[in-house]
Fold:
Amino acid sequence: MRDVLERFDSRRGIAGFVVVVSLVAAFMVVSNEVQAGDRDSLLYFLLFVVILVATVLGGAYGWTFFEE
Structure:
């Protein structure tokens, strides 16, 4: 059990939490804007998701490259 706790990296948990909170907040804003009739906000939301995923994947790849 101690080995598992020593190998746990809490930064990944925090990063995952930030990603989920960002997506939920953005979805709430976009759903309100779309209901109000602003269709462009859906495009901005999709762009936000693509950028967020690219940032997370790029950061994960960069971190593993840096660790090695």
Notes: Residues 15-67 form one domain. The CA atoms of residues 32 and 43 lie 14 Å apart.
